[in-house]
């Protein structure tokens, strides 16, 4: 067991921290978020130049062969910096599918530009009726001659409005909630029959509802085996869950720091409010929640790297923890800031909103606790 | 002890129910049901309708045009109003400044202000908090200096709810710093928002709405007779009002209505999915909040019964405030959880009458649930934060 970062990881941490400290303040974040596409293309190009968009990919695919710990490092800092650039959607979700199943030809078509920062992508894994069940896929793909025809709709697709490439799980056999019978397809958003309704999300990100109305695709747009998409999807969703939990830890920590700092400066009744024991204990609880959550994150990331049997349990544990302790930390941070905590002007409110959104996606606390209870 | 209603109570309930069924304007009802925000004019129209019925001054004494209802009648009215999903009565005029004026004001003030408050002809807002004085309200710095027949006001009030709509503001201001206790230098004063020197700046809240403001006073001249009651007694008057405000914030009937809605909604399939009611985890959380709410309903009734037998609401009203708001926040959280991914889209612009149906994102008000959850974090902060309420109970009830 080793908790230290290797040289490459230390350098990565250092470079992400530098970028956030020097080039990404709250005002910039807000202006990127407010822009039409909801993030900065310039920042995205910088991520590519710095090699961050290449982290989880194999060297032979143009990546740098990083693992869950590297992603954890980056995502925690992205949480602290409240980064709105669609790293999760592109690199972890869409990239996660491509790196696992794309053919050489498909990789040069989609993965290369994705890593290069030229292509925006999204994984459309939520269906209107499906809530948190990723096997609940009603979108269908049927064979018409040599082509596939896709019909159905997907909900709240992260980065869906900006994506040139959508990865779409569709049912090719079996019942609506079967894990067997799901096939993944690459759909370019220019294709006929793709209808995208994009919107901002409450956490300052961007997403879309997308429908597919008889979208025709050649078989070369199929990603991986027919009917075998679930295992891929499931693994990618676990990666993504870990990634957002790392982001959540970054947010929880900065919220705790900001709250402690605020309580030292805000004076009421002639003393800093941080001198009230009623508040001190609550800040101690916030701090403890951060430590406990980070511990689970480290365990889950190391377990994922080692490919241990516990990997799924670890993912559900950390997501449950983020859903519960994260909510507590977010609510307390707002509460202890008093009226200021509920203003748009203060970054605390926006950290809290992102943290809340993380709790709502990729399975909420109830779902993950259920999985743990089932053993 | 008896929980059954008398025949008179039932007749009264039926009358109130019929009123909300038949006379409550359809367009306001539709807005409420669809989650379309009300405008100033809607709120005024609703309150004026209550006024024509003689039901605006729910807690007011009959001699000032109030209903004179007993606690059971008030309870029935509040319950029927919530179950009809009618809007809350905006508290600043009818619930706050009105009672201060009829209790502490002079005859001229009563005649001048009360009829318009009762008829919702004038919109009031509450100017207590300041940037440096929130929980520690008694440290407030906004000053009123006497100059002949006038007071001259300088300072800044903040968090002023719906101040952008207001015609008048009631303020706590410092009229003397030459006192033993700083509370004794505070007075309660009424200011016309049109007075030269008053400026209103919006504060945007966490969910993106505009409901609070910062208000600056620069040499604002106010006639001496706008000071209510005695000079230097404003703190006492303000406290009386705060205690009334706290009983009002429990919102038990509104919470009951929303829990019913939540159950109804959970029983239905959304977009062809499995009804959430099949999820025991979720329904256990709903049931747990229902138990808390029932307890609070009876705690409130017990408090009201004590008040009607002549006791002041007292420090116990603090319990109603913090439990009530915690329950409201728990319900907001459950609505958000129920919406799943559809809590995320930030599409408040689609909540208007003419929004094209085929472009609507989410079902019903799903996409407002996170916004409501964010916004309602305010409830444990305003009206005296929940920490301050617990301090009050610790000190004045438990004697610690
Ligand atoms: C949406 C909204 C609407 C409002 N509307 C109005 C209005 O219309 N008119 C008006 O006058 N005011 C209004 N307020 C102001 C409200 O009353 C204050 O925000 C509130 O009193 C808290 O003050 P503060 O924000 O300065 O927080 P602070 O007093 O700075 O408190 C910060 C934190 O410290 C805690 N704290 C402070 N003192 C203690 C203590 N002794 N022990 C333990 N904890 C403590 C608080 O509970 C809070 O968690 C509104 C506020 C909001 C958010």
Give the number of DSSP strands of chain A.
Answer: 10
Unreliable runs of chain A: none
Helix content of chain A: 40-55%
The CATH homologous superfamily name of the largest domain in chain A equals Butyryl-CoA Dehydrogenase, subunit A, domain 3
Query: What's the main sheet of chain A like?
Result: 4 strands, mixed
Q: Which structural category do the helix and sheet elements of chain B fall into? A: alpha+beta
The strand count of chain B comes to 8
Hetero ligands: flavin-adenine dinucleotide
CATH homologous superfamily label of the largest domain in chain B: Butyryl-CoA Dehydrogenase, subunit A, domain 3
Average pLDDT reading of chain B: 94
What is the radius of gyration of chain B? Answer: 22 Å
What string, H for helix and E for strand, traces the elements of chain B in order?
Answer: HHHHHHEEEEEEEEHHHHHH
Radius of gyration of chain A: 21 Å
Count every helix of chain B, treating DSSP H or I runs of 4 or more residues as helices: 12
CATH topology of the largest domain in chain B: Butyryl-CoA Dehydrogenase, subunit A, domain 3
Overall pLDDT metric of chain A: 97
- CATH architectural type of the largest domain in chain B: Up-down Bundle
Strand % of chain B is: 5-15%
């Amino acid at each position: 067991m080793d908790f230290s970062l290797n040289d490459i990881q230390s350098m990565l941490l250092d470079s992400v921290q530098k970028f956030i400290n020097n080039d990404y303040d709250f005002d910039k974040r807000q202006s990127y978020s407010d822009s039409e596409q909801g993030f900065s293309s310039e920042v995205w190009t910088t991520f590519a130049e710095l090699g961050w968009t290449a982290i989880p990919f194999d060297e032979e695919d143009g990546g740098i062969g990083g693992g869950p710990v590297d992603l954890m490092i980056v995502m925690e800092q992205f949480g602290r910096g409240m980064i709105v650039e669609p790293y999760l959607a592109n690199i972890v979700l869409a990239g996660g599918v491509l790196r696992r199943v794309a053919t050489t030809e498909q990789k040069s078509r989609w993965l290369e530009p994705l890593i290069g920062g030229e292509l925006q992508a999204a994984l459309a894994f939520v269906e209107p009726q499906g809530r948190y069940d990723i096997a609940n896929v009603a979108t269908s793909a049927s064979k018409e001659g040599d082509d596939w025809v896709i019909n159905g709709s997907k909900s709240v697709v992260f980065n869906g409005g900006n994506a040139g490439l959508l990865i779409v799980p569709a049912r090719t056999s079996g019942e609506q909630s079967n894990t067997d019978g799901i096939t993944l397809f690459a759909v370019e958003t220019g294709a006929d029959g793709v209808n995208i309704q994009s919107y901002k999300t409450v956490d300052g990100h961007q997403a879309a509802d997308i429908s597919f109305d008889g979208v025709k695709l050649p078989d070369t747009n199929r990603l991986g085996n027919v009917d075998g998409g679930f295992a891929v999807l499931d693994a990618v969703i676990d990666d993504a869950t870990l990634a957002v939990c790392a982001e959540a830890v970054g947010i929880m920590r900065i919220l705790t720091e900001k709250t402690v700092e605020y309580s030292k400066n805000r004076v009421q009744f002639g003393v800093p409010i941080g001198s009230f024991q009623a508040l001190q204990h609550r800040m101690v609880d916030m701090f403890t929640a951060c430590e406990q959550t980070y511990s689970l994150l480290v365990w889950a990331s190391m377990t994922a790297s080692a490919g241990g049997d516990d990997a799924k349990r670890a993912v559900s544990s950390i997501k449950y923890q983020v859903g519960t302790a994260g909510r507590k930390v977010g609510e307390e941070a707002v509460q202890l800031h008093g009226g200021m905590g509920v203003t748009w002007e203060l970054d605390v409110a926006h950290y809290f909103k992102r943290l809340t959104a993380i709790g709502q996606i990729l399975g909420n606390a109830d779902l993950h606790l259920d999985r743990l209870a089932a053993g | 002890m008896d929980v059954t209603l008398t025949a008179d109570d039932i007749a009264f309930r039926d009358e109130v129910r019929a009123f909300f069924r038949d006379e409550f304007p359809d367009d306001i009802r539709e807005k409420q049901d669809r989650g379309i925000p009300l405008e100033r004019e809607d709120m005024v129209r609703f309150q004026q309708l209550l006024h024509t019925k003689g039901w605006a001054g729910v807690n007011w004494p009959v001699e000032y045009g109030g209903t004179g209802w007993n606690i059971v009648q008030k309870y029935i009215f509040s319950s029927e109003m919530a179950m009809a999903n009618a809007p809350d009565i905006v508290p600043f005029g009818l619930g706050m400044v009105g009672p201060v004026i009829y209790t502490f004001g002079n005859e001229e003030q009563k005649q001048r202000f009360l009829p318009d408050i009762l008829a919702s002809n004038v919109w009031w807002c509450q100017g207590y908090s300041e940037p440096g004085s929130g929980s520690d309200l008694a440290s407030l710095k906004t000053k009123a200096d006497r100059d002949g027949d006038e007071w001259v006001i300088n300072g800044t009030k903040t968090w002023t709810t719906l101040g952008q709509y207001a015609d008048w503001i009631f303020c706590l201001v410092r009229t003397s710093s030459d006192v033993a206790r700083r509370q004794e230098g505070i007075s309660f004063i009424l200011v016309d928002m049109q007075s030269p020197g008053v400026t209103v700046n919006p504060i945007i809240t966490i969910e993106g709405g505009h409901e609070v403001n910062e208000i600056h006073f620069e040499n604002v001249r106010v006639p001496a007779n706008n000071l209510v009651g005695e000079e230097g007694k404003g703190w006492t008057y303000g406290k009386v009002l705060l205690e009334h405000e706290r009983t009002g914030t429990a919102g038990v009937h509104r919470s009951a209505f929303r829990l019913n809605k939540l159950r109804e909604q959970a029983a239905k399939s959304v977009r062809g999915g499995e009804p959430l009611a099949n999820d025991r985890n979720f329904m256990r959380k709903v049931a747990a909040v229902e138990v808390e709410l029932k307890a609070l309903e009876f705690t409130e009734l017990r408090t009201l019964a004590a008040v009607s037998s002549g006791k002041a609401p007292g420090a116990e009203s603090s319990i109603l405030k913090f439990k009530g708001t915690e329950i409201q926040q728990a319900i907001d959280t459950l609505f958000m959880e129920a919406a799943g991914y559809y809590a995320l889209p930030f599409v408040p612009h689609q909540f208007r009458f003419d929004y094209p149906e085929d472009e609507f994102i989410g079902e019903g008000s799903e996409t407002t649930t996170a916004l409501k959850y964010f916004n309602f974090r305010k409830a444990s902060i305003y009206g005296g934060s929940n920490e301050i309420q617990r301090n009050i109970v610790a000190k004045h009830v438990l004697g610690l």
